[in-house]
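Q: Please design a sequence for this.
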């Protein structure tokens, strides 16, 4: 019963099922994080923010490694409309 007829089975490349990551983070979030960090560091001359940005990157990369869809789920939860309290 588990036998698949010829022509109904194919291999799927791993890149089609996994999200696109940039240095361990989703591409859009990594660009947002580092664009904001560089604006603060280079534009406002706040050099203390560079280690903070690196620490945030490492933290978010660890979260992404644990669950690759973490940011998608987080954004969906933030956008969800909450019912008003009576």
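A: Design:
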């Amino acid at each position: 019963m588990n036998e698949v007829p010829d022509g109904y089975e194919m291999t799927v490349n791993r890149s089609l099922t996994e999200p696109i990551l940039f240095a361990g983070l989703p591409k859009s979030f990594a660009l947002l994080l580092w664009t904001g960090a560089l604006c603060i560091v280079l534009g406002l001359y706040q050099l203390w923010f560079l280690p903070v940005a690196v620490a945030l990157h490492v933290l978010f990369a660890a979260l992404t490694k644990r669950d690759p869809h973490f940011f998608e789920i987080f954004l969906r939860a933030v956008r969800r409309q909450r019912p008003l309290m009576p």
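Q: Thanks. Anything notable?
A: The CA atoms of residues 10 and 29 lie 33 Å apart. The two ends are 55 Å apart (CA to CA).
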